[in-house]
């Protein structure tokens, strides 16, 4: 079985190098496709600690794009990773972040893939009614950032910007009417999923079409909507099974919490990857 790991990275390059070694060291048939946020420059010795055999199976996506949280640039980065992955045949592509870590052995993962229904698409589709993120005109799309404890001034600025964006959305809805849904009603799912080659091609092609049409401009978190919507529109709904990711959120937060030893001890037995880890906070995951 041939696996591809499509990795979105922007920091923690020492940990990222360890991740690549962990994924490829004992799997000569597998590959890594790596997108590094264009806003950052990796250290000059990045990947130098890997063997030539491993480095030869790492494709760094070029050109990279500057990625902003919840912005359509995240969607473009995923599409470029899928382009790189689809250049050679594979059985499954895992989209993960540079701070993810495998929670099981490759042997266990391959056995679970083989036991799944033929053509299984490992993806979580949520019940959240968030289609507005694709159908409203979100004029503050480029300025989204993870939630932080606000100062009074930053809170007032954020409120003012949101009100201005809301006013602009109402004017656009009156002027142009509802925004089109070219793939059908928008579904919602996490970005982190694992797909066979035919499903990955469907997602890549749908993303490319939406980008070319300009439909992703002034949306929020489009990366959480395109893949599930494209697969459902293509008739893959009966092939969708849980993603086998372990993700934890602290109350009231938008971004996943950093996992620690305590989380590992309570991890689901069928989880393939945990998101996210930081070796400077708790390096326990490195022993997995």
Summarize the structure.
The protein has 288 residues and is an alpha/beta fold. It is 34% helix and 14% strand.
How would you characterize this protein structure?
It is a single chain. The protein has helices at 13-24, 52-55, 72-85, 106-115, 132-135, 152-176, 197-213, 226-233, 261-265; strands at residues 3-9, 31-36, 58-60, 92-97, 101-102, 121-122, 125-126, 188-189, 194-195, 240-241, 245-247, 273-275. With 288 residues, the protein is α/β, with parallel strands linked by helices. Strands 3-2-1-4-9 form a five-stranded mixed sheet, with helices on both faces. Helix 3 packs across helix 7 and helix 7 crosses helix 8. The longest helix is centred in the middle third of the chain and has 25 residues, at 152-176. The protein is globular. The two termini are 22 Å apart. The mean pLDDT is 92.
Secondary structure layout:
Layout: E1 3-9, H1 13-24, E2 31-36, H2 52-55, E3 58-60, H3 72-85, E4 92-97, E5 101-102, H4 106-115, E6 121-122, E7 125-126, H5 132-135, H6 152-176, E8 188-189, E9 194-195, H7 197-213, H8 226-233, E10 240-241, E11 245-247, H9 261-265, E12 273-275
Parallel strand pairs: 1-2, 1-4, 2-3, 6-10, 11-12
Antiparallel strand pairs: 4-9, 5-12, 7-8
Helix pairs in contact: 3-7, 7-8
């Amino acid at each position: 079985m041939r696996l591809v790991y499509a990795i979105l990275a922007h920091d923690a390059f020492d940990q990222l190098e360890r991740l690549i070694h962990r994924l490829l060291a004992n799997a000569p048939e597998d590959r890594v496709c790596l997108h590094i946020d264009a806003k950052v420059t990796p250290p000059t010795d990045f990947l130098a600690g890997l063997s030539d055999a491993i480095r030869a199976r790492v494709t760094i996506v070029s050109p990279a794009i500057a990625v902003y949280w919840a912005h359509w640039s995240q969607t473009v980065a995923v599409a470029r990773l899928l382009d790189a992955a689809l250049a050679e045949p594979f059985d499954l592509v895992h989209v993960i972040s540079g701070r993810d870590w495998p929670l099981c052995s490759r042997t266990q993962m391959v056995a679970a893939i083989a036991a799944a229904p033929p053509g299984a698409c490992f993806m979580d589709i949520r019940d959240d009614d968030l289609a507005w993120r694709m159908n409203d005109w979100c004029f503050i799309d480029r300025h989204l950032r993870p939630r932080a404890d606000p100062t009074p001034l930053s809170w007032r600025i954020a409120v003012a910007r949101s009100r201005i964006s809301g006013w602009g959305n109402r004017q656009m809805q009156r002027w142009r009417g509802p925004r089109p849904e070219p793939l059908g009603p928008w579904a919602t799912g996490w970005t982190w999923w694992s797909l066979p080659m035919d499903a990955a091609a469907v997602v890549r092609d749908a993303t490319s079409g939406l980008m070319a049409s300009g439909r992703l401009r002034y949306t929020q978190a489009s990366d959480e909507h395109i893949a599930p919507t494209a697969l459902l529109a293509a008739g893959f709904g009966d092939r969708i099974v849980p993603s086998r990711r372990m993700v934890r959120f602290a109350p009231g937060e938008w971004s996943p919490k950093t996992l620690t030893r305590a989380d590992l001890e309570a991890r689901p037995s069928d989880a393939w990857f945990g998101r996210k880890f930081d070796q400077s906070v708790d390096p326990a995951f490195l022993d997995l």
